[in-house]
Amino acid sequence: MLISAYGFLPIEPLGFKINTVDMRNVDIINSSSRDVTEGAMPPEAFPSPSLTTGLQVLEAIRDGRMPGSSISQTMPMQLTHVGSGEVAIMAMPDTRHMNPSGMVHGGFAATCIDSAAALALFSSLDATTPYSTVDLNITYVRPLAQNIQYVVTGRLKERTKSLGLCSAEIRDVNDKLYALGSATLMIKAN
Q1: Per the structure, how many domains does the chain have?
Q2: Among 183, 166, 151, which residue's Cα sits nearest to residue 80?
Q3: Which residue(s) pair with 168 in the sheet?
Q4: d(Cα 9, Cα 18) in Å, to the nearest integer?
Q5: Are residues 51 and 12 in the same domain?
Q6: Which domain holds residue 82?
Q7: Which of 6, 50, 88, 166 suits 109 as a labelling partner, its CA being 20 to 30 A distant?
Q8: In the chain, which ranges are continuous DSSP H helix?
Q9: Quick check: pTM over 0.70?
Q10: Residue 59 in 3-state DSSP?
Q11: For 162-166, what is the mean pLDDT?
Q12: In this predicted model, what pLDDT tens digit does every residue of 61-74 receive, in sequence order?
């Protein structure tokens, strides 16, 4: 049995082998019938050549012409509004998102805020420009309840060549604030 670099995660029982040349560059190789890309978007879901901007891709997702990412199935989120530098998502936590004390886990709100902030940035990029969150700050104002719909908005506040600074918030349908956050995202060169 192989042990990961952290020293406690067994790798082989999960069906993976680690092939290392340099421990700073670890490759995961599928060694069983388990598919490493399970849950990933199928090739036909990737942007068509006619969709050249992130905004066009998000409009296609919103309009149902293209599937959203798989996280929107794990965390029930639906893109409802798209504009240049802004998005709105409807999100509803359910029993899968509860912590042991019976409350909606804070990670649900954090994921929603991260998603809205990232999509706000994506709406200003080319469709193929990679980006990723490098800093996420959340302020929880009040707890979320399960089976209640929330509106998550994300706005691009500032964009440089290599960074996007975004804000996001979660409100209920009566405009009551539940959480707010900011995200810094790295824009990677193509």
Answers
A1: 2
A2: 151
A3: 154, 181
A4: 12
A5: no
A6: 43-187
A7: 6
A8: 54-62, 71-74, 106-122
A9: yes
A10: helix
A11: 97
A12: 999 999 988 888 88
